[in-house]
Amino acid sequence: MPFRPLHLLLALAALTVGLAAGGPAPADVRIKDIATFEGVRENQLVGYGLVVGLNGTGDRLRNSPFTQASIEGMLERLGVGNLANEEIRTENTAAVMVTAMLPPFSRLGGTIDVVVSSLGDATSLRGGTLIVTPLSGADGEIYAVAQGPIAVAGYAAQGVNASIVEGVPTVARIENGATVEREVDFALSSLDSIRVALRTPDFTTAHRVEQAINAAIGGGAAALDSTTIEVQRPGKADIPELIAEIEGLRVAPDSVAKVVIDARSGTIVIGSNVRIDQVAVSQGGLTVIVREDIEVSQPEPISIGETVVVPQTEVRVEEREAKFTVIEGDVSLQRLVDGLNAIGVGATETISILQAIKAAGALHADLEII
Q1: Where in the sequence is the signal peptide annotated (predicted)?
Q2: In terms of domains, do 70 and 163 share one?
Q3: Most buried pick, 9, 80, 161, 232, via CB within 10 A?
């Protein structure tokens, strides 16, 4: 029986095939792919607004009083008058939350994408238009203003007795739907040093990044911890040019040994640094099969009787013979996979085997179940 859960693993880690127990040499990657630079980051924006023009799929004002209050406030600001004592029955308006990411160094007048999400009980935002919505940052200041027709990927249709929903029609996007009205103050060129932050903290990787930077620029880089490497500005060097030079350098990142298991889908990913001590594994299975067949018994022609349904139940037990397989100690990823393949088990059994090996203290890796 093939070991199906590791097919994806073998495809992603094919470079480990056929290598010795010492493990493969890690591939060199660019620093920009494993790290970020302090100060070069996105900022979250959020706002509350109204989507109008819906074809009867908006909020029911009885269930969404905040939508009615927003409509009254908007119309009053537009000079319609005070509608506080009037009963509004529109179903073409929906209250929404508008979110966006402000890219680093966004300039005044630039545009960014926004995501529009229904806040009330609207069934669809298809065909709607977002009214002017200020977008604020964590400091309460307005950094962008969004408006425009929205695009919905999903759809919903319903009749009297049936309905169908594809995707999420209550979430939509507006490409380039917001205009930047305020810039984030950050003078990159005035920095005396820059900090490189690893996305995955690791002391070995931080040391390798430090060495690569020092070799490229002639010194000035020092690892502060497992995440941060500080690089002093050499003389009057241009900071953007220095960052461009650093992010193109290649290093071999290191990582802790880890086995990740997704029990819901049966996916198992084993890192190349995983090692186990010598163990003997036996896996057996007991399967109980219960089968129900329905038979109909009818009376003879021209006789007194009635038709009855007679269920026929068959119960069968199948037991697979359990065999021991020895997995050698200090094995590489490929030899570990070969050992598990020799047992011939499915995803559920493999997860149990890995958990048992970890409990026995023979699996030298973090076992993470998601």
Answers
A1: 1-27
A2: yes
A3: 9
pLDDT digits (tens, 9 = 90+) for 118-138: 999 998 999 999 999 999 999
**Res 363: pLDDT:** 82
Which pLDDT value is given to residue 271? 80
Which residues, 6+ apart, have CB-to-CB distance to 93 below 8 Å? 50, 51, 52, 54, 58, 59, 67, 71
Give the bridge partners for 136, in sequence order: 46, 142
Q: Is residue 314 part of a domain?
A: no
Which of 126, 185, 193 minimizes the C-alpha distance to 156? 126
Q: Looking at 208, 225, 251, which one is the last position of a domain?
A: 251
Higher pLDDT, 84 or 360: 360
Residue 338 is inside which H or E element, if any?
Answer: helix 333-343
Give residue 238's domain range: 29-39+187-251
CATH number at residue 228: 3.30.1360
The pLDDT tens digits for 301-331 are 776 767 777 777 666 656 566 555 555 555 5
316 lies in some domain: no
Instruction: Specify the number of domains making up the chain.
Output: 3
Percent of the chain with pLDDT strictly greater than 90: 37
In-domain check, residue 83: yes
Residue-level pLDDT at 19: 32
Conformation bin of residue 226: beta by default, left when phi > 0, alpha when psi is -120 to 50: alpha
Strand, helix or coil at 360?
A: coil
SS3 at position 1 = coil
H/E segment holding residue 359: helix 347-359
Question: Which residues, including other chains, have CB under 8 Å from residue 368's CB and lie 6 or more apart?
Answer: 258, 259, 260, 261
pTM above 0.70, yes or no: no
**List of residues 6+ apart from 87 with CB closer than 8 A:** none
Indicate the SS3 state at residue 303.
Answer: coil
Same domain, 130 and 202: no
Choose the weakest-confidence range: 79-88, 157-166, 282-291: 282-291
Query: Is residue 48 domain-shared with residue 103, that is, in the same domain?
Result: yes
Distance between CA 73 and CA 255 in Å, rounded?
A: 55
Six-digit token string for 288: 């109980």
